[in-house]
Design brief:
436 residues, alpha+beta, five-stranded antiparallel sheet, 21 strands, elongated
Length: 436
């Protein structure tokens, strides 16, 4: 058994396991073995126990057991009590998923606050098998079929090559005490059903199933790592999250799917990826699809990008420009006066010839059919913005200044012919600032 743990540490670069570590300690056989093995090997250990408040008195019993075990090994125990059932209901998630999220949140907080080297969890080969089966039944890609990563950032799993049977045998042979979670027998939980019904049936076909799945997951994760590296290289070439349309089309489907996930910055399911692919290959400029992740994926003239869904809503505003006006929709202030503002708060300044202005000035959002006389030609505002490669979801945020004749200026992008101050006569100076 020692050799399997040492092999996992060496193969997956888990040397930090011998430093200052947080051990996720439930009191079960897995985590009790983990504490026992590293108690004489790690530089410093702090055990963290999360009481999920699911099993009443049994959960309190486990907490007490963990306290006694840590006293026995002379290590500090930190306990967090979290009402997982209530939290799961509030989030609209399952109890298992919520419990896992909260455990890792607690572990990471303890790691950060203490400045420790790593988090050790007691996941083993059977856990890996169950994860692969679980992911397979839901439909998954290489990442899901890769199972539990032996090393995932600062989370290390040195028991990943041990079977549950090996763990129990080691604990019994070395008089390592542990507690048993009664809910582990409840096959109403999906993972318990896999553990007690599905996995044993598969092991009748191949008694060495854990090893076979372990070899498979290692190979798949190597492949996943290579494909992901290709996707990351492409994303580095993207300008502010905008992917060149021809470039993203030229990628292999496997790399493109990972590029989309990286650009989105969050999980995209198969349906979402297919919807994005349709925009990439079968849409015109301005087309978009709304995704369940709170994002929309949009095609511009020569690139595609993700934007917040709310950015699709048309922004409308109109203000008469008198002295100083706050454009709340933009978080911008426009003024004829010099305001007390830093260079970082000052956005832009327009200097207009007063003789070219008719009536009052108005600042408003873009409207369909807007045109401006510029360089001797009447041009559509839409075309000017398109030629400037300004993303469509930002175009309504560019203020337009109008007078009695029509549009005077498209912010600081272009002025109506004859409106630019040339040094003769009176002038009007409009300065834009970030609103405070």
């Amino acid at each position: 058994m020692d050799k399997k743990i040492e092999y996992a540490i060496k193969t997956h670069g888990m040397e930090d396991a011998f430093g200052r570590v947080i051990i996720g300690f439930s009191g079960g056989a897995d985590s009790s073995l983990l504490l026992h093995w590293f108690s004489t090997r790690a530089r410093e250990i702090v055990c963290v126990h999360v009481n999920h408040m699911i099993r009443g008195g049994e959960a309190d019993r486990d907490q007490h057991f963990c306290s006694e075990m840590c006293k026995k090994y002379g290590v500090e125990l930190v306990v967090h009590k979290i009402d997982i059932p209530s939290l799961a209901e509030k989030r609209g998630k399952g109890i298992e998923e919520t419990a896992r999220e909260e455990r890792y949140r607690v572990f990471q907080n303890e790691l950060r606050d203490r400045g420790f080297d790593a988090i050790l969890t007691a996941h083993n080969g059977d856990d890996n098998l169950e994860s692969v089966i679980f992911n397979l039944t839901r439909g998954t890609g290489l990442n899901g079929l890769g199972g539990i990563k032996p090393k995932n950032g600062n989370v290390l799993r040195p028991l990943i090559y041990l079977s549950k049977e090996e763990i129990f045998s080691y604990c019994n042979e070395n008089n390592i005490e542990y507690v048993t979670d009664s809910t582990n027998e409840d096959t109403d939980y999906t993972r318990n059903y896999i553990r007690h019904i599905v996995a044993p049936a598969l092991k009748k076909i191949n008694p060495e199933l854990n090893s076979a799945i372990g070899r498979m997951t290692e190979g798949l994760m190597r492949d996943e790592s290579f494909i992901l590296s290709q996707a990351k290289d492409f994303v580095l070439s993207c300008n502010k999250g905008c992917a060149d349309i021809d470039g993203i089309r030229s990628l292999s489907p496997s790399v493109r799917a990972r590029v989309l996930k990286l650009l989105a910055g969050r999980s995209l399911d198969y349906k979402g990826i297919c919807a994005c692919e349709d925009i990439i290959f079968n849409s015109e400029c301005g087309s978009y699809v709304e995704l369940s992740s709170g994002l929309a994926f949009k095609r511009e003239r020569d690139y595609v990008h993700f934007i917040p869904k709310e950015a699709l809503c048309k922004l409308e505003y109109s203000y008469e420009l008198t002295d100083t006006v706050h454009i709340d929709e933009l978080g911008v202030t426009a003024s004829f006066n010099e305001l007390d503002a830093s260079v970082y708060e000052r956005l832009s300044t327009l200097t207009l010839s007063m003789n070219s202005i008719k009536g009052e000035l108005v600042i408003r959002s873009r409207r369909d059919g807007d045109r401006i006389l510029h360089n001797g030609m009447t041009k559509k505002i839409k075309r000017i913005l398109c030629d400037k490669h300004i993303p469509s979801h930002l175009r309504d945020r560019i203020p337009i200044i109008c007078d009695g004749y029509g549009i005077v200026a498209l912010y600081d992008i272009c002025l109506r012919d004859g409106c630019k101050y040339n040094g003769n006569g009176e002038k009007i100076k409009i300065t834009f600032y970030k609103s405070k």
